[in-house]
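FW: tagging you since you asked about this chain on Friday. Here's the raw sequence from the shared folder, copied in full. Didn't touch anything.
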Amino acid sequence: MSVKAMMATILQNQLTSRGVHSLTHSDCEEIVGQLIEKLTELELSLAVREVADKQEP
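HL: got it, structure written out here
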């Protein structure tokens, strides 16, 4: 099982425990994929900012 699929299962279980039953596993995988993309973008942005801050006198 891929990390994305595992995270989707966790998301789906958490939503179900909160009474949300309208999302399919593939919906959850898509949401997880988008979250991973956003987190990657944020991580890269923060890394660039950190490098830029170190280069300032």
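FW: The helical segments are 3-17, 25-55.
HL: agreed, and The chain has a mean pLDDT of 92.
FW: great, closing this out.
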